[in-house]
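fwd from M.: "can u put these together and see what the complex looks like"

so here's what she sent:
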Amino acid sequence: MANLKQLSKIPERLSGGHRLCPGCGASIALRQVLMGAGDSPVVVSCATGCLEVATTIYPFTAWKVPFIHNAFENSAATMSGVETAYRALKKKGKIDKDIKFLAVGGDGGTYDIGLQSLSGVLERGHRIVYVCYDNGAYMNTGIQRSGATPKGASTTTAPAGKVKTGKSESRKDLTAICAAHNIPYVAQATIAYWNDLVTKAQKAFAAEGPAFLNILAPCYRGWRFGSDDAVDVSKLAVETGFWPLYEVENGTVKVTYRPFKRKPVAEWLKPQGRYKHIFEPGNESIIEAIQAGVDKTWEKLDKGFLV
Amino acid sequence: MPDTAKSTIKALTGDQAAAEAMRQINPDVVAAYPITPQTEIVMTYSQFVADGLVDTEMIPVESEHSAMSACVGAAAAGARTMTATSANGLALMWEVVYIAASTRLPIVMPVVNRALSGPINIHCDHSDSMGARDSGWIQIYCENAQEVYESIILAVRIAENPKILLPVMVCQDGFITSHAVEKLSIFEDEQVKDFIGTHKSNFPLLDVENPVTYGPLDLQDYYFEHKRQQSEAMKNAMQVIPEIVEDFAKLSNKTYGFIEEYRMQDAETAILALSSTCGTAKVVVDGLRNKGVKAGLVKLRFFRPFPADNIVSSLSKVKAVAVLDRSESFSNRGGPVFSEVRSALYESENKPLITNYIYGLGGRDINTSEIEAVYNELQETIKRGKADKLVNYLGVRE
């Protein structure tokens, strides 16, 4: 468990003044993750995306820790090189510090184009924490559909129109895919539940092997809500059961926060402009299908299974 | 050749020669993925690791894209880093090949030249590395396994030189060189260790006390200046490589130029080629010389940096030149080597007549009689006062 007093003493590793949108969920997520590393030195890699372009516009950088961006799909593989170099140099006595390694990607760079690179890293057992800040679309290029975009959401490449109702397919369950690699630690978190998130980050950094955190990080531009509502929307995702908070520690699935009574998923969908069309008459079945998906996920979770 | 007093003789294939050089270099990190005909390098090196002959940490990546990505991470971290690839593997890592060069990371990569798909073909041509000619990597082309071995050792010094700091590809011909056993002279391990020295990175990512940001977003304000610096590094390479080669000569008694001239002193006709074909062409040149024909050969060792002055000074002495390209550029104006050689000669006062032969695609053999026919045609060219065709295809069914 993290407590605020302790966390407030951890120096910020991602400084302010960067060019992310005000109210961006990604920077909140990353600051919480970095708190989870405590006093340990951390090296960060980041996939091409909002977080990267907004924090490292040459000749400026918002990173107070060593940082590397390579390309879009290879944050994990790049960090596997850094972490391996660390082991090689430490073995030769050229480095004596204990360093933590954090690879970051958005959902586009993780669920889609970077999935192979991530899978390779998890399989090879690098001691890396991989964080996906999941905002459910390619936000950096202008809100295009990704494998993380939920069913029914309107994006610029799966827009709602006269005959289409946004994305017709369901999300890919990336957290379960990562858990299937049988790595020491996998978890889902979101920014509204900071204590849950920081605790999971602490566990991830402490894991003796790869760890994966999937963090729902609302994007007000893409989700179409008010710029100061990211935390509230994040909270609704959990309260409605859309985004279950759980962890898989050495193979054991554990729900880390269970809403007392799950709110209808429509309460999460309603404030978001990307779902506006599914509230029009005739589209009730879409909301029902989304609700059914949530119910099914929890049915499995309640039995201790992800799939 | 290594100093006979201190060298040992080994029978090795080109791939094994590359792995042997890597063993003596003993890099901190090797990230690699198997692909024919490079696979034997990775297999041999993995065995060295398994047997404790090196203390390299290997990353058995899941693709070449990840191989080069991990190399970028490892080199940025401050590790001496190597990989190896061929053909489609090089194509898959393409994006990161450019990033490695622009990040100025001194990665050394043996490339076993193989035809780029499609159609799929596993045999030799230069379409893979020629496609990467504009990536900002230094490119060395090797005639035989001995050159492969020595060039990889040289490459470490070239890549890591503070005035250069560019990654280096050391190319050999797939199967022709990579899978043929040759007699090699191998240096003592200590000699190689002394020659390459210890690796020092200027801004290692692992220096957590002095954090740096690698790979920032480089917009209209700065990108151009950074590319310009890369050009400058490649220019510096023209100056610095001869110094490194001179140092290497103390070890090997061998001086590697940007080009190698073979019987060019009084030559009237010449072929310019790369890699193993030069070995075949030397046999042809000797035969022609025995018949009193003044034939010579220019072997291009470095394609990047492009040694234009050396080429011009060598080819300006002859009356007719044929440039042999083992890849097609589809410009209808010849292959990549021809285009650059011909361009280099543009301002020469003694321009030779020049023609291009595209040959050997997908591993099609080139034999001595075909090369001899090229020299014969060059003599006809001199008589006619012009080349019959700008671009010829050698050894193909028309």
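replying to her w this: Chain A touches chain B through 47 residues (CB under 8 Å).
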